[in-house]
Amino acid sequence: YRAFAWVVIPHIRIDRRKGRDMLAIDIQSGLSEAWERIATFVPKFLGFLAILLIGYIIAKLLAGLVDRLLERVGFDGWVERGALKTALERSRFDASDILSVVTFWAIFLIALQLAFGVFGPNPVSELIEGVIAYLPNLFVAVVILVIVSALAKVVTDLLSAALGAVTGGEWIARGAGVAILVIGIFAALNQLQIAP
User: Fold this and answer.
1) pTM of the model
2) How many CB atoms lie within 10 A of CB 137?
3) Rounded Cα distance, 25 and 12, in Å
């Protein structure tokens, strides 16, 4: 048994002198640890905000670029010729806007993951990483649906013209269009990794 034996409990110290226990609270080390944590957190938080702001700006710019590029290529026209026209008429978005929004969130989520990475490994970064890995599948699934719906519409119109004089020709044309659309929907679901 020593004359002085220090047992340290976070910011509380038990001093044993000559068989007596004395309780002492170490305020100075608690305050210095608090200031140290603040001094390391504030720069990380400012870095987090800077990365988030830059990521938001880049995401907005790229989303606008994708929207303009898809409209220039005539992507919305392809959709209007397809079976998705009626579905998008009730929406406030057109097809290029939907892909633009997907692009925005893909880029912004990457920026969000980088921003949370400033604080070190954490579960939020891992969750966002999983969402980011899934977004390209969503983008491709939308493109598959647009192409397949346009193809189904073309086949339906072509077969309707060719089989118009045949009894049940209209039903055969519609059935072919629906079959193509169903195959396309399953391809999109497969791309989204939720096909049966």
Assistant:
1) 0.61
2) 15
3) 4
The answer to whether residues 185 and 194 touch, using CB atoms and an 8 Å cutoff, is: no
Contact 119, 159 (CB under 8 A): no
Which is it for the CA torsion 175, 178, 182, 183, positive or negative? positive
Q: What's the average model confidence in pLDDT over 175-194?
A: 89
Q: Determine phi and psi for 122, rounding to 5 degrees.
A: -155, 160
Whether residue 188 contacts residue 145, with contact meaning beta carbons closer than 8 Å, is answered with yes
* DSSP annotation of 92: S
Which pLDDT tens digit goes with each residue over 58-103? 999 999 999 999 889 887 777 776 666 666 676 777 778 888 888 8
Q: Looking up tokens 């720069």, which residue turns up?
A: 43
- Bridge-based pairing of strands 12-17 and 20-25 is antiparallel
